[in-house]
Amino acid sequence: MEINEEELNQILLSKTTSDFCLAIIEKREGLLSEEEYQNIIGSEDDQYLEVSKKDFGDIYNKIKEKEQLSNYANEIMRALYSVSTIRYSALITMINDNIYDIANREFVDIKRNKIIHYENMINYYDSEMAATRLITPEQDPRLKKPTVLVDVMDITPFKEYEKTHVNQEGNEDLTSAYIKDVKGNSKGLHL
Q1: 27 by DSSP, 3-state: which?
Q2: Is 0.70 surpassed by the pTM of this model?
């Protein structure tokens, strides 16, 4: 999708709380690319796996100790991460025909990811508790440039949503349902 950063920021700033959904996204089956693997192991955020990141670290160290396997440790770990369920919570919206994850500032590749749960953000936040805003590096030193984010007054509802749904047993692919719901209701979802 061809869209520059300024256009993206304008689109996001025009959205209201009801245009966003909290979602649980799960990686589809298949070997992770090297880039995806590096993003997971380099992430400070907890990734939701069947095996914890600490346990993966212990496995990696054991592989590195084995002389015959040491040279293949990264490839083995990438395969192990690929077969483990990887889930994360996201705040998503539609931009044209694409799903955008505003917290991670990236479009969701639906060939590699699926939505397994989603709810409209207004189920958790009203317009006084959350709004899209342009946040500058002066306001948030973690940013390298002015960035549009959803600014929430209290992170607790988002964390509660995540805790409730990230470890759910079912993993039905609701990606098409999400797109259909959003396309059918331009004022946002009311689930």
Answers
A1: strand
A2: yes
